[in-house]
Design a protein that fits this description.
seven-stranded mixed sheet, globular, alpha/beta, 212 residues, 5 helices, Rossmann fold
Amino acid sequence: MKNIFIILTILLYSCKTEIVTNSYNASFSTEKQKVKSKAKAPIVKSNTVFYFVRHAETVGDGKIVNPDLSITGRARAEKWVTYFKEKKIDSIFTTNFKRTLQTIIPVAKSKGITPIYYNPSDIDYANFIKQNKGKNILIVGHSNTTPNFVNKLIGSMKYSQMVDENHSDIFKVIVGNNNNAVEEVFVLEEELAKIAAVQAKLDKKNKKRKKK
């Protein structure tokens, strides 16, 4: 397994990432996540698109140092495959933990991409943007590192640590040529419902065509 991964850094992941406080945690509901999104940036080839997700659910209720994904978490990992199926992804970055790797391996395999290890506490954010200019990047992290990474890219301490129950949010940050960034936040279940609805319409049209 180790042979399929490119290691950018073998420094041990540090939990000393900044955590900001705002209303983000309070807005989360296990029944329905209430999130706000900014206006979409114009889509041009030179834009850089970053997708951020947190690792899926794990076993051990937080009592295990490096836990595997639970049955629920493994099911969620497969759902990410559906979500990213029609989205262009050039590179995938993940922390060096079982839960993040297991979350993204299904997507990586479906895209034929070798995940790259990164250390959240050892990133030059300006350089990271520069190195990935014009690409679509998927980054998998943790409840604190994911919103913090987003904050660094948008230049605003807007998002606080994700609550334990929240494994559904998808952060999308679009960075333009002038390095201005806009972000949107989606909920996995809601996006999958949209995908299913579109597929249902296509299936219905195909059935009508076959009948003719």
